[in-house]
């Protein structure tokens, strides 16, 4: 680990000049040096970029006047319990690259009011600058914040640490453990809790425990029921598409700059390091289940189908402390996450928050979570829990109210209104989720994407419909003229409506693309939600320059592959094969993995590959016998079946023609496809090796 910024300890920075209403509010407590680096309120990192327009400035001024900036309790809570900060701001990955760089956001502490950032979002971005070790409950509960997208929490047991959510990467989790041991005394890790199935809550586990200690039972790893299934399966089948779209939702490849990436709402960004997974050895299966570990009594509350497919809150009755996992944080979360994922259940989400409120909220004196900052005092805890409960309930109920009166998925975001009382509470502002996308997600969950209009039942693809629109609008020159006029009036959404058609009709029309980028950029500056801001700014950049360089984080690794079931891998092969090249192929393969006693039938028919577990075809074309431990090497792309056969670790009995035909038609997905026309990279991304599965786990 190396130092890039001076970090004088316990130094607070005033936000003078940030916003008049919060001029005296302090940063959360970390001593990051407030430096400019390349960030500037006036200089754009992109020579084609534009400053905030007068319309964007007017919107900002209206938000500054209407939002409750006088309420500084979040700042008090975010810096409460600060113990120490590290002397470094960079954490290096074992591979040699930078895994984490908190110092790259130091410009947020300059005290400037950045005109290209929504004022409410800038407030959240400053709150997320907490960096270092914090005491949540004296002598018992601690957090290291600012080391990754999530917080890593440490519960002090009789003899060691119980760690809640060990971050995304081995390197950041290891650094956090080393730091708390340095400051509070070295203690062994006796337990790890995975609160849910998203990668930033388990991926760093190998930085804090050894797998052998988990296997022996020396370390207890606790997770909710179906954790492994959800952790592996949630984003496998559409993982490549999600990986590409995540680059837009998180804009992780754009510069960290007032005109680019500023925050991720629930943390600064995602660490890029070694992502691991150690299978849990204790599963929580009941709705409420009590476990005592190292003298610490924990009551786990299973909350499936909320922020994640499987998730659990935890109450510590000895400490009157409530762990809210990612069900309650300092923002309204995603019901529909724009990188793509199954739509979440807002109704179920509010029900589980309500159950926690009535089960634990009556006596809790501290509430902490895997993101954001803790809340102290029973009144404050109940206030936040009720606001979060009501925000999700209102999203669900009001949306369905309008849907039952005929409002469609293409109208609901222009009809739904957040109740004024919720608008005035910082804990339920839409920093991570976006209310307009969330309400459309609710409609989609209950009614699907179709709005009932037959015109939209079989819509043309944009590349087919766009030329018709351009022709009917009188050609590109008229659209450019009208687009310029709409932008000059601040009607950016209207401008995108017509310029988008021109961009798809004429992908090489640089003037059209750059004008559309200008409109996208202003919409990004105006957005309070990081997902919306990032999406528009990434779109602007790619329209101007094509896809940015750099590697987006992935979760592919040996642990992921080992945890993936053989059936999941076979199912993914069915997705990976080119169906057009499969026409006319027909074969049946029996697969046996003796070391775990599994057997499968893999069948190709009607240009479709299907798999069934627990059966063997009576007359297969080919029987493949290989231990699952050796199959892992094929799945990871480090060995071929032929390599295993030559080494005596696999056997093929029968006609392998169908197998070779399947291997020949597999397509390796890469996360670099075009989203906007004309933005394909000049050098395509390197494709995975044959049979390799690339998985990107959810972080939102």
Discrete helix count: 21
Q: Distance N terminus to C terminus?
A: 27 Å
Biggest sheet descriptor = 8 strands, mixed
Mean pLDDT, all residues: 89
**Structural class by SSE content:** alpha+beta
Shape: globular
Strand content: 5-15%
* Regions with little confidence, pLDDT below 50 for 5+ residues: 1-26, 34-38, 693-699
Spatially, the strands of the biggest sheet line up as: 1-4-5-6-7-8-9-10
Q: What is the number of E strands? A: 21
Structure commentary:
The protein is an alpha+beta fold and 700 residues long. The protein is built from 21 helices and 21 strands. An eight-stranded mixed sheet has the order 1-4-5-6-7-8-9-10, with helices on one face. It is globular. The model is unreliable at 1-26, 34-38 and 693-699 (pLDDT under 50).
What is this entry, summarized?
This protein has 21 helices and 21 strands.
What attributes does this structure have?
21 strands, 8-stranded mixed β-sheet, 21 helices, 6-stranded mixed β-sheet, alpha+beta
Topology:
Layout: H1 54-66, H2 73-79, E1 82-84, E2 90-92, E3 98-101, H3 119-127, E4 132-137, E5 141-145, E6 152-156, E7 161-164, H4 170-184, E8 189-193, H5 211-216, E9 220-224, H6 227-233, H7 239-250, E10 282-284, E11 288-293, E12 296-302, E13 312-316, E14 321-323, H8 346-359, E15 366-368, E16 375-376, H9 378-403, H10 420-423, H11 435-447, H12 462-472, H13 476-488, H14 492-505, H15 510-526, H16 530-545, H17 558-563, H18 566-576, E17 587-593, E18 598-605, E19 608-613, E20 622-626, H19 628-635, H20 641-646, E21 650-654, H21 657-664
Parallel strand pairs: 7-8, 8-9, 9-10, 14-15, 17-20
Antiparallel strand pairs: 1-4, 2-3, 4-5, 5-6, 6-7, 11-12, 12-13, 13-14, 15-16, 17-18, 18-19, 20-21
Helix pairs in contact: 7-16, 8-9, 9-11, 12-14, 13-14, 13-15, 14-15, 15-16
């Amino acid at each position: 680990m190396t130092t890039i910024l001076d970090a004088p300890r316990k130094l607070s920075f005033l936000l003078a000049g940030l916003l008049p209403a919060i001029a005296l509010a302090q940063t959360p407590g970390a001593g990051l040096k407030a430096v400019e680096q390349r960030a500037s309120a006036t200089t754009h990192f992109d020579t084609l970029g534009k400053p905030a327009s007068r319309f964007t400035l007017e919107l900002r001024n209206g938000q500054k006047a209407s939002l409750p900036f006088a309420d500084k309790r979040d700042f008090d809570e975010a810096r409460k319990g600060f113990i120490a900060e590290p002397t470094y701001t960079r954490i290096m990955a074992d591979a040699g690259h930078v895994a984490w760089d908190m110092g790259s956001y130091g410009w947020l502490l300059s005290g400037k009011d950045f005109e290209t950032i929504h004022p409410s979002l800038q407030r959240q971005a400053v709150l997320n600058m907490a960096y270092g070790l914090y005491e949540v409950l004296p002598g018992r509960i601690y957090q290291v914040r600012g080391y990754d997208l999530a917080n890593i929490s440490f519960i002090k047991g009789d003899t060691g640490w119980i760690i809640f959510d060990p971050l995304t990467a081995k390197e950041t989790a290891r650094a956090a453990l080393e730091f708390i041991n340095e400051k509070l005394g070295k203690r062994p890790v006796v337990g790890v809790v995975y609160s849910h199935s998203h990668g930033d809550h388990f991926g760093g586990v190998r930085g804090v425990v050894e797998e052998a200690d988990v296997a022996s039972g020396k370390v207890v790893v606790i997770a909710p029921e179906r954790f492994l299934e959800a952790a592996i399966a949630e984003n496998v089948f559409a993982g490549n598409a999600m990986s590409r779209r995540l680059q837009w939702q998180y804009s992780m490849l754009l510069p960290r700059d007032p005109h680019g990436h500023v925050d991720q709402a629930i943390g600064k960004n995602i660490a890029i390091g070694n992502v691991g997974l150690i299978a849990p050895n204790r599963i929580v299966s009941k709705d409420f289940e009590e476990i005592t570990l190292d003298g610490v009594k924990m009551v786990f509350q299973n909350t499936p189908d909320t922020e994640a497919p499987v998730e659990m809150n935890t109450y510590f009755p000895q400490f009157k402390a409530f762990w809210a996992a990612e069900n309650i944080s300092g923002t309204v979360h995603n019901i529909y996450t724009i990188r793509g994922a199954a739509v979440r259940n807002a109704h179920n989400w509010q029900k589980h928050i309500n159950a926690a409120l009535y089960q634990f909220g009556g006596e809790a004196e501290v509430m902490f979570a895997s993101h954001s900052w803790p809340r102290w005092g029973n009144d404050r805890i109940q206030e936040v829990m009720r606001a979060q409960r009501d925000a999700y309930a209102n999203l669900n109920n009001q949306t369905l109210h309008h849907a039952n009166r005929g409002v469609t998925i293409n109208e609901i975001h222009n009809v739904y209104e957040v109740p004024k009382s919720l608008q005035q509470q910082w804990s339920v502002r839409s920093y991570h989720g976006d209310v307009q996308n969330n309400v459309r997600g609710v409609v989609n969950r209950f009614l699907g994407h179709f709005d009932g209009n037959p015109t939209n039942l079989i819509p043309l693809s944009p590349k087919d419909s766009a030329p018709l629109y351009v022709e009917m609008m009188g050609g590109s020159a008229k659209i450019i003229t009208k687009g310029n006029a709409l932008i000059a009036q601040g009607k950016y959404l209207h401008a995108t409506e017509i310029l988008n058609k021109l961009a798809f009709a004429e992908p090489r029309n640089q003037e059209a693309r750059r004008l559309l980028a200008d409109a996208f950029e202003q919409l990004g500056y105006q957005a309070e939600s990081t997902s919306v801001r990032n999406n528009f700014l990434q779109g602007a950049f790619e329209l101007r320059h094509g896809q940015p360089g750099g590697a987006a984080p992935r979760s592919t690794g040996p642990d992921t592959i080992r945890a993936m079931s053989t059936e999941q891998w076979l199912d993914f092969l069915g997705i990976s094969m080119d169906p057009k090249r499969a026409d006319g192929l027909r074969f049946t393969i029996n697969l046996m993995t003796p070391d775990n006693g599994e057997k499968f039938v893999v069948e190709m028919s009607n240009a479709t590959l299907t798999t069934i577990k627990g059966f063997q075809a009576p007359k297969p074309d080919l029987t493949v016998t290989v231990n699952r431990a050796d199959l892992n090497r094929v799945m990871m792309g480090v060995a071929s079946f032929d390599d295993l056969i030559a080494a005596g670790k696999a056997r093929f009995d029968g006609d392998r023609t169908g197998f070779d035909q399947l291997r020949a038609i597999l397509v390796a997905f890469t996360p670099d496809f075009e989203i906007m026309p004309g933005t394909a990279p000049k050098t395509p991304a390197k494709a995975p090796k044959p049979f390799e599965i690339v998985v990107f786990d959810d972080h939102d």
